[in-house]
Amino acid sequence: MKLSFLMRVMKFGVQDFFRNFWLSAATVSVLTLTVISINALVLMNVLGKIAVTTVESKIDASVHFRQDVDESRVKTVRVALLGLPEVKEVEYVSPEESLQQFKIDNGEESELVKSLEEIEGNPFGATLIVRAHDTSGYSTIMQTLNQPLFASLIEEKDFSDYEAMVSRLNAITGKLEIFLLAVTCAFGVIALLIVMNAVRVSVYTHREEISIMRLVGASNWFIRGPFYVEALIWTLVSVGLTVLLLYPALIIIQPFLQRFFGSNSVDLVSFYTVNLLSLVGLQVIGVAFMTLVTTKLATARYLRV
Fold first, then answer.
1. CA-CA distance, 51 to 166, in Å (whole number)?
2. Which residues contact 23 (CB under 8 A, 6 or more apart)?
3. pLDDT at residue number 233
4. CA-CA distance, 145 to 154, in Å (whole number)?
5. Confidence at residue 68, expressed as pLDDT on a 0 to 100 scale
6. Per-domain residue ranges for the chain?
7. CA-CA to 229 of 20 to 30 Å: which in 135, 176, 185, 223?
């Protein structure tokens, strides 16, 4: 008996969905935009973290030693730097490697390279490229290198201060997330109003059928049930459409993101694939809660049973 009751309620709910097709389409469209906005918010958060990690991985400090400083003294400084807990790695670049890299960067036929050929010997000294575990560690590294013991050996310190860039990137990401959150809330409010209106129209459309159900003694749940079933259909269709639209979009933009950041670590497709079940599950629960609560409020207001 209960199974038969449930099947009939589900049948009427499906019929209502297709009977008011254009109203259902409008409701599903706004719900889909809301879910897409939520996904965009999640993906933007992930992309922001990847971007910061990518920028931080490119941060280093180049320490150029005087030409007359021999290799053993440079390597002594290297050992001292490796002893700092803030230091991740220290790469030694010989004067010959520095000269070769200079020629590669500027081109063999450039005026700078030709002018170097007129100078006898190698004008470059040894270089240490220092990388820290975290951007905050570079201040300690610089303080160590400024000590008289090391400062007298160093000709120049070239520190690309990416910390300001990371701060700006975090600020931009934060503002974009706030914007997406505002858009999501706006779509959410619109979705609530449309669901409320859709239920009102559906109640009006079925007013004669509802009157007959009352006359034959149908229970309140039998009358209200199809509206809840319809709300669940809106939920499932909107989340399903979001996946169908978002997945191909991520595949298309993936190569552009990797080229932009210059790293294959930017892989939103893999993130979305790995977390697909949890993302879809949470979205179904969230949207279903929203539509069912709104349907409950709408039926309480417009459906007198």
1. 9
2. 198, 201, 202
3. 92
4. 8
5. 86
6. 2-55+165-302, 60-161
7. 185
Distance, in Å, from the CA atom of 214 to the CA atom of 209, rounded to the nearest integer, reads: 9
β-strand partners of 62? 129, 158
DSSP code string of 106-170 = H-TTSHHHHHHHTSSS-----EEEEEESSGGGHHHHHHHHTSHHHHTTEEEEEE---HHHHHHHH
Tokens of 63: 């320490």
Please give the radius of gyration of the chain, using alpha carbons only, rounded to the nearest integer: 32
The CB density around residue 48, as the number of other CB atoms within 10 Å, is 17
Nearest to 116 by CA among 126, 131, 106: 106
Beta carbons of 59 and 88 less than 8 angstroms apart? no
Mean pLDDT in consecutive groups of 10 residues from the start of the chain, 305 residues = 72 81 87 88 82 75 87 89 90 85 70 65 83 81 86 80 65 79 83 82 75 72 83 92 92 86 77 89 91 86 69
pLDDT at residue number 107? 66
Q: Which residues of 281-291 are buried (b: 16+ CB within 10 A; e: fewer)?
A: eebbebbbebb
Decide: 254 and 267 in contact? Cβ < 8 Å: yes
Contact 171, 267 (CB under 8 A): no
DSSP state of 66: P
Is residue 125 a contact partner of residue 77, using CB atoms and an 8 Å limit? no
CATH architecture of 60-161: 2-Layer Sandwich (3.30)
Question: What pLDDT, on a 0 to 100 scale, did the predictor assign at position 108?
Answer: 62
Where in the chain does DSSP place strands (E)?
Answer: 61-65, 87-93, 127-132, 154-159
